[in-house]
Amino acid sequence: MAKDLNKTVVYSALEVANICGVVNQTAINWIRNGHLKAFSTPGGQYRVYRDDLVQFMESRGMRIPAELLKDVEGTKSNDSILIVDDDKGLNNVLKKYFEKVFPDLIVYQAFDGFDAGVQMAEKHPFCILLDLDLPELNGFDLCARLKQTDEFDRPYVIIITALEEPGLEEKVKSLGADLFFQKPLHLKDVADSMKSFFESLSEN
Question: Are residues 103 and 166 in the same domain?
Fold first, then answer.
């Protein structure tokens, strides 16, 4: 699903520690225990690619400095999706299913508009699965905002909804939505459509 990211910038274990706000030995332990991808120089020093560090920090909900994101494609992880739905049961089912079908995908969750805003600003997900009908949030306005401004790096938007209105799919797609699904969801159909959509992107 993801495109290859630029791997020309590397950091030492000490630089990783400084970026993450930990001591040098902690960063070394992350590497030795297999939590953080790294390679060794001929002299035995650890080095970490920038995009691997970004993915590591995103997967653990760590705040990522703006300078670290520079030159990483689109300043967002191409391996992350944010599920925004106040139905906790469905949200959790989607998370588990996506993690099974897309094992390399980092899945974030938000259950209300405020939490969604915080996570979009901090984690810059590659894709957002958005329920149109959220309390105290206009899903139509958010869809347009996501696609028409650079505030959240213009993620791909997948709309899900239980609303039944004539021309609803056409309306949200005119606002920039990339995919649309009516509830109740058929998870395999959703996953298959997502696979096809992201494969088409990688071919362009």
Answer: yes
Q: How many CA atoms lie within 13 A of 16 on its CB side?
A: 29
Domain harbouring 181, CATH code: 3.40.50.2300
Contact status, residue 13 vs residue 37, Cβ threshold 8 Å: no
Which residues, at least 6 apart from 126, have a Cβ–Cβ distance to it below 8 Å? 2, 74, 76, 77, 78, 79, 80, 81, 155, 156
Unique residue bearing structure tokens 């739905």: 85
pLDDT value at residue 151: 77
- pTM to 2 decimal places: 0.64
Its domain, for residue 132, covers 76-203
* One-letter identity of residue 91: N
Residue 168: band (very low, low, confident or very high) from pLDDT cuts 50, 70, 90: very high
Calculate the CA 104 to chain-centre distance.
11
Q: Is the dihedral of CA 50, 53, 58, 59 positive or negative?
A: positive
For residue 52, give the amino acid letter: D
CA gyration radius, the chain:
18
For residue 121, the one-letter residue type is A
Domain count, the chain: 2
